[in-house]
Task: inverse folding
């Protein structure tokens, strides 16, 4: 009975050692953060309204639309940069 237990223990040890016989390949992943150009990350300017007449309001709306178009151009450049 002792010899059977010894034999089983020896077989188990041999099986366990086969896992240690191979060389393991360890891969290390490195994350590199890339950011868009700083000029594209700047906030869009909002023109201030300083008028007092309806004509001034029309001019202000035109300035807002121009500012919005420039902001959209920046976002379009960001999308192009990301591709």
Result:
């Amino acid at each position: 009975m002792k010899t059977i237990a010894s034999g089983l223990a020896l077989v188990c040890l041999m099986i366990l050692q086969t896992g240690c016989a191979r060389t393991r390949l360890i891969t290390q992943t490195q994350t590199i953060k890339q950011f868009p150009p700083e000029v594209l990350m700047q906030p869009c300017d909002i023109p201030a309204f300083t008028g007092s007449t309806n004509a001034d309001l029309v001019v202000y709306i035109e300035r807002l639309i121009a500012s919005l178009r420039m902001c959209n151009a920046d976002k379009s450049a960001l999308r192009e940069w990301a591709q």
